[in-house]
Amino acid sequence: MRSDAMAKRNALVAAARHLYADRGPDVPFTAIAAEAGVGIATLYRHFPTRSDLIVGIIEQVHAEILDCTTRCGEEWDSHPAGSWLRFVRALADLRLGALIPQLALTALAETPPEEAVRLRGRALGAVGRVLDLAKTAGFLRREITAVEFSLGLAIITRPLPAIPFSDVPSDRSWLIDAFVRGVRPD
Amino acid sequence: MRSDAMAKRNALVAAARHLYADRGPDVPFTAIAAEAGVGIATLYRHFPTRSDLIVGIIEQVHAEILDCTTRCGEEWDSHPAGSWLRFVRALADLRLGALIPQLALTALAETPPEEAVRLRGRALGAVGRVLDLAKTAGFLRREITAVEFSLGLAIITRPLPAIPFSDVPSDRSWLIDAFVRGVRPD
Amino acid sequence: MRSDAMAKRNALVAAARHLYADRGPDVPFTAIAAEAGVGIATLYRHFPTRSDLIVGIIEQVHAEILDCTTRCGEEWDSHPAGSWLRFVRALADLRLGALIPQLALTALAETPPEEAVRLRGRALGAVGRVLDLAKTAGFLRREITAVEFSLGLAIITRPLPAIPFSDVPSDRSWLIDAFVRGVRPD
Amino acid sequence: MRSDAMAKRNALVAAARHLYADRGPDVPFTAIAAEAGVGIATLYRHFPTRSDLIVGIIEQVHAEILDCTTRCGEEWDSHPAGSWLRFVRALADLRLGALIPQLALTALAETPPEEAVRLRGRALGAVGRVLDLAKTAGFLRREITAVEFSLGLAIITRPLPAIPFSDVPSDRSWLIDAFVRGVRPD
DNA sequence: GATGAATGAGCCTTCATTCAT
DNA sequence: GATGAATGAAGGCTCATTCAT
């Protein structure tokens, strides 16, 4: 039963992450529970408050960010330029922007959960070390901080709600590439 | 009496736009009516559906976009570079991003209102003409379309909900400047 | 419409008072609204918080307490003993006890509503003046305060939930009479 | 193992009784199980229905009532007046009133459990015998029955929810004393 | 034409109860 | 036998929308 509960917990985090990214911050909890295939009360058992659910997502994202920075550090020396571009695109693929409104929600009622603060600090540190490599290699302006860089990437990858104009491009790699060029020193 | 009604209509549009930009997309209709100083039924009289209110806002925004393009066209020849930068920043100041969730809402129920499509087309045309000047002057990559450019600007100016971390910079001009650099040809 | 709204407001207060006394403090708001013949949202429009509804009831009760004290004061001189007994029984008939759990509820979240405090003070003052007459006439021990007297009466008139034993007497006048005797000086 | 189960059963009854008296009738079952230091399923194993738990409490209370009546009977002849007063106060200390809402709950679904009826009858009989002594000694009016007397004591010892007025006295011995005086013959 | 009162639908949250381990 | 995870049902509350004045 312990492993079964863990599976449901993971299903809930996955469902929440997917639906938040897909349908915006107003997804009903009932929809998350349904997507995960569990009852609403099960969601509350695993995540008593909204913050707890957010922290659950952040834990996943945190691990994935560390994957990105680790891989980038390993391949940096052999091909810095390609490594840098892959790093930024990999970070962008995490769709960090989808988490912004959730983080904001946790703020309304209280101070951010301690665990979230800790994880965020660690991730920012790891990203900062990659940014230092990039600054040294001339890929990144010296004045841009890890917070700014991450926030910028989050902003331009923040999911748009479905927009009723067919000519709106769904691919946003052009914007990411522009961001990469835009943060380069002159 | 006609002018009185017109004043209330304008007050409603201004209130809606202000509150959407300020408090996010979840502002209750009652709050909009209250901000405009009218009853809720008056809002419904002027704007029977949600889309009608959005169209009302779009009309205002449309006029302001045309202001930007017109002014930019007038000053272009004397100082193209400064004119281009001012244009981008002026567009950014319109905070087009604040409208995105509202536009999305109108999509859920129906096809976008004809009037909105018409206005959007006109604005995109005017922006496109400025972009052509910029492309010729070497400020903008040829492959970037008016839709992409506008959407990019909207994305990076989309209001963030309040975030519970004090180290997040509230000023976003650095991102706009990075965008301007990033859309430049190599 | 104004008078119509007032009628509904009164119906809500009456329904709430009746159901609180009859079914205890856990009556769902839906039941109160249904008893008053209005929708649930109408209840919330008239009484945005639980406290507001309680205050509404207290206003009614307050007026009735003042009726009791006034009448008692008028007839006192002609027949003090009968007047005193009638006064206590009339107070008991108000079933003040039914309000106790409600007052407690308002306390959990916040300090008691100012209006409630004011009305309570006035009612206690009026009751206190009658008690002074009773003390002088030898009907009441000197050490018993208005608060104690009222609370005692509230306690012994607090409604019981329906109890599944048929031999439980529903009439409680014997207890009230015992109270009257018990507060007399030796 | 039998004694282990018995210990848990007793812990559950004690927890339920304590929490009902302390936090009111709305205590969740999970809180009772937690207070007793067992899982929720264990509570259900020992007490399949709500009535069963109530009966468990009644058994304890019943034994304590018999203690009171027995002791009172033993000391009656040497000092009747003191014995009577001690008896009433001991009964009051049992806080029978705290059980009233629970008894009521068992009534909603069904007829009272047979075991409860039997225990109640025995306790009422024992109390009745003490009351007879008191009537003979001139401490108690002849017309007051054992049910009335017990109910009266339960009513005046029923726990009040916390009340938000600081001038409300928490001590209620004055009311019990008034009750003792009030039930005396003239 | 303007007002705001009334309404039902929907989401959030808790709790009693059952079931798999 | 004991545990605690899972569940649906129910109440609290808000909001978009309609109607009577």
Task: Please tell me about this protein's structure.
The structure is a homotetramer of 186-residue chains. Chain A has 186 residues and is mainly alpha-helical. Chain A has nine helices and no strands. Chain A is globular. The N and C termini of chain A lie far apart (59 Å). The mean pLDDT of chain A is 87. Chains in contact: A-B, C-D. At the A-B interface, helix 6, helix 8 and helix 9 of A face helix 6, helix 8 and helix 9 of B. Chain A binds a DNA duplex (21 and 21 nucleotides) through helix 1 and helix 3.
Number of strands of chain A: 0
Mean pLDDT of chain A: 87
Strand content of chain A is: under 5%
Number of DSSP helical runs of chain A: 9
Q: For the largest interface in this structure, which chains are involved and how many residues does each contribute?
A: A-B, 42 and 42 residues
Main beta sheet of chain A: strand number and arrangement? Answer: none
First and last CA, distance of chain A: 59 Å
Whole-number radius of gyration of chain A? 18 Å
Oligomeric state of the chains in view: homotetramer
Order of helices and strands of chain A: HHHHHHHHH
Structural class by sheet pairing and helices of chain A: mainly alpha
Helical percentage of chain A: over 70%
Spans of chain A with pLDDT under 50 lasting ≥5 residues? none
Cα shape of chain A: globular
